[in-house]
Amino acid sequence: RSAAHCAEAQDLLAEHSALHWEQVKGVAANTLSVTKLLQQTLSQQKLFIRQWILQCCFALPNKKKLAAILENVLTARLYRIAEVRWGDVVLRRYQNDLYVMSVQSELAMTSNHTWELATALTVPVLGVLEANKIKGSGIKSTINTVSVRFRCGGESVTLPKRGKQSLKNLFQEWHVPPWLRARTPLIFSDGLLIAVPGHYLA
């Protein structure tokens, strides 16, 4: 009977957090807003963080780790990257958002690929790249084959009306978390960086 009551209470808590999810959602997908969380009571903060981690299909942190999240990560300075790890899970703060991920997802990518744009390219671990014909922007239609590789440092791209821009500065401008920058595929043609999937170079 006690176990049944606990399960029922947990279901009610999950339902309550789902109803109020908009109150704490971050700007990026699948993130929590630090500012919005700090507007909640301590018990609500714990509830939202637990439900969010479960929703992202990760194991929950123990009490000590959860306390570290509340005391160290939520109160970290805005531009400081703070993190807490447990098992193969890492929770990080970047600017005003909380991210949770597998430790494996932070591994840098080192492979190079030749991509015939007429067909999809499968990039191990990351997924599939596809090129679609559009009007007015994107890669020139005369380019049929490109190379796909990952950040080594020092990359730059020339943008219309903006001139030469460093990829590092563009990543900062796009608010790409540091641990994702080495995992973002870069599209090159004749040795020149011409596209970054998910970002419009203009």
Give a brief outline of the structure:
Helices cover 29% and strands 25% of the residues. It has 202 residues and is α+β, with helices and mostly antiparallel strands.
Q: What is the secondary structure topology, with strand pairs?
A:
Blueprint: H1 2-19, E1 32-33, H2 34-37, H3 42-55, H4 63-73, E2 82-86, E3 89-94, E4 97-102, E5 113-116, E6 121-123, E7 127-129, E8 145-149, E9 156-159, E10 163-166, H5 167-173, H6 178-181, E11 186-189, E12 192-195
Antiparallel strand pairs: 1-4, 2-3, 3-4, 5-8, 6-7, 8-11, 9-10, 11-12
Give a description of the structure.
- The protein is an alpha+beta fold and 202 residues long.
- It has helices at residues 2-19, 34-37, 42-55, 63-73, 167-173, 178-181; strands at residues 32-33, 82-86, 89-94, 97-102, 113-116, 121-123, 127-129, 145-149, 156-159, 163-166, 186-189, 192-195.
- The strands form 4 sheets. A 4-stranded antiparallel beta sheet has the order 1-4-3-2. The chain has a 4-stranded antiparallel beta sheet with strand order 5-8-11-12, with no helix packed on it. A two-stranded antiparallel sheet has the order 6-7.
- A hairpin with a 2-residue loop joins strand 2 and strand 3 (89-94).
- The mean pLDDT is 84.
